[in-house]
Design goal:
Order of helices and strands: HEHHEHHH
Mean pLDDT: 93
Oligomer: single chain
Strand order of the largest sheet: 1-2
Distance between the termini: 32 Å
Helix content: 40-55%
Low-confidence stretches: none
Radius of gyration: 18 Å
Number of helices: 6
C-alpha cells in the first residue's frame, strides 16, 4: 500500500502539478474493510484491510505535504456512510447491486466476480446486470468494492462542500 500511495503521489507531482495543475484535490481511500468484499472475509481480515487503507492514506498525505493540493478525506465520510446509511439516502450497503450470475451470462462466462465494469441497467435480458430489486440510487455498492450512483453521490456531495470551503466554487 505504501508503494501504491507513493506511485500516486509521483503521478500527481509529475503529471498534474508539474504540468501546471492549480486546482488539485485528491481523495483518500475509504476503509476497504467496510465494503461487501471486506465483510465477506473472516472477521480477522477486516482489521487488516482497515490498516491497509490507513497505510495508503498515511503515505498519500505524507507525500503530498507541502504540495499545492487539497486532500479530501473520504475515510471518515464512508465510515459515517456505513454506520448511518439512511443519513445519505442509502437503504442497502451490504449487498452489491450488480448480480454476478447475470454478469457472467452477459460476458459469456469471461467475468465471474460481478465486476461493475460489466454491470448496467440496459432493459431486457441478457444485458441487464443489476440484481433483481437493486436500485443504484439507494444501494451503496455496485460490486464488492465500487460505489453505485448513490455511493458516488455521497462522494460528490462531500467534494462539492469541500471545494466550496476551499473557495474554488
Amino acid at each position: 500500500m505504501k508503494v501504491a500511495a507513493q506511485e500516486l503521489v509521483a503521478d500527481i507531482k509529475t503529471q498534474i502539478l508539474a504540468k501546471g495543475g492549480t486546482y488539485v484535490a485528491v481523495m483518500t481511500l475509504s476503509d476497504i474493510g467496510d465494503t461487501p468484499f471486506g465483510n465477506s472475509l473472516p472477521a480477522t481480515a477486516k482489521p487488516v484491510l482497515t490498516a491497509l487503507s490507513q497505510v495508503f492514506n498515511l503515505w498519500l498525505k505524507d507525500g503530498l505535504t507541502g504540495q499545492p493540493v487539497q486532500i479530501i478525506d473520504t475515510f471518515p465520510l464512508f465510515k459515517d456512510g456505513y454506520q448511518n446509511p439512511a443519513k445519505f439516502g442509502i437503504v442497502n450497503n451490504t449487498v452489491p447491486a450488480c448480480d454476478a450470475a447475470k454478469i457472467q451470462a452477459i460476458t459469456g462466462g469471461a467475468v465471474t466476480d460481478g465486476s461493475s465494469l460489466f454491470c448496467n441497467a440496459t432493459p431486457g435480458a441478457p444485458y441487464n446486470g443489476l440484481r433483481t430489486g437493486a436500485d443504484v440510487t439507494t444501494w451503496q455498492f455496485a460490486d464488492s468494492v465500487h460505489p453505485t450512483t448513490g455511493g458516488h453521490k455521497i462522494i460528490s456531495d462531500a467534494f462539492a462542500a469541500q471545494l466550496k470551503s476551499f473557495g474554488w466554487i
